[in-house]
Amino acid sequence: MKGLIIKFGLLAILLMVLIELSNYSVYTANHYREFLIAISAIALVVFGFLLRNQLISKSLLLKSELKPDDEKLALLQMSKREFEVLVKIAEGRSNSEIADLLFVSENTIKTHVSNIFSKLNVKRRTEAIKQAKEYGLL
Length: 138
What we know:
Layout: H1 2-27, H2 33-65, H3 70-76, H4 80-90, H5 95-102, H6 106-120, H7 125-135
């Protein structure tokens, strides 16, 4: 996260320098303004692609880390959607965050969480995570 903040800070500094250079070119009657705007646009596009690739690679790593074991899920009678919710709980997300990520309502997530708790025979999220780790799900 710090790296992302530093990148955005450097980008902001670069943009401020380019804006100041474009103002300078207007006062000195040089016509480099279009050139500077083009450079800044190219820099933003390149930065966007780099940031996108970095975020996609991180999300793919997170998705590839936790794959459901079908045998264990069948033994617990847990659906793959409930497993997805369990993974999001283990990531420390709230019900509303999980609902936004999975594109369902918060009430649906509450139902899934309740089903997970009953299938793992627990009463709290922390207990569910601990029990899922003991079963080898997480």
